[in-house]
Amino acid sequence: MTKILLVEDDKTIVSNLTEFLTREGFSVKSTSGQAEALAVLDGERFDLVLLDISLSDGNGFAVCSAVKSDYRIPVIFLTASGDEYSTVTGFDLGADDYIPKPFRPRELISRIKNILRLTGNAGSIIKLGEVEVDTVKGTATKNGRDLYLSALEYRLLLVFINNRGVILSRAQLLEAIWDIAGEFVNDNTLTVYIKRLREKIEDDPQNPSIIKTVRGLGYKVD
Question: Are 78 and 95 in contact (CB under 8 A)?
Fold first, then answer.
């Protein structure tokens, strides 16, 4: 059974989310603060951490940093902080995903399963040609060199990785990344970020071999 550590100080959210995740087949343990969370992690093994930024003591950023450096397990932020700074900081610390409150429970389950699939049996390193994505550290490199992806670029790359072989429409891509940059993500913005991502990961961005355009339908990563 997949074990999840829920680090959240809102008792109502803890109660509702624990009940929902338990019904979905997950084992859930909750803590309300930074010190308690780190103490629990020292004594038990978990498969994933659901983490709020604002805690009863300390903060989620510190917990995320410790989880990634000491325990190397996936982290998903659950937070009402929708500002770009919080989002970027979370990803810079290695967070695997970021879901703003209020969120749809089914979407959360989908995100959890996606992250577990990405970081599970296949390990934390995913390869796309010469590009390697470490989903535990939240980094992407090419030929050993850091690509320095922005939070939105990294999230976009994860969406493609998680849907290998599937043609993704522009509407599907926008839906998948809207929570990273909020109102700034529109069709034109998506075009810009796909172009930037290709410039970083492709040998020849004008003739991409990783993120391929399927004319009239969208994009696909084989």
Answer: no
Q: Options 1.10.472.10, 1.10.10.10, 3.20.20.220, 1.10.357.10; which CATH number does 125-221 get?
A: 1.10.10.10
Q: What angle do CA 180, 132, 122 make, to 5 degrees?
A: 90
Output the pTM of the full model.
0.56
Query: Which sequence spans correspond to the domains of the chain?
Result: 3-119, 125-221
> What pLDDT, in 10s, does the model give residues 173-204?
887 776 554 445 678 888 999 999 999 999 99
Cβ partners under 8 Å of residue 140, min gap 6: 131, 132, 133, 134, 146, 147, 149, 154, 157, 200, 201
C-alpha dihedral (191, 198, 151, 75), degrees to nearest 10: 120
Q: How far is CA 47 from CA 44, 73, 112, in A?
A: 10, 6, 10
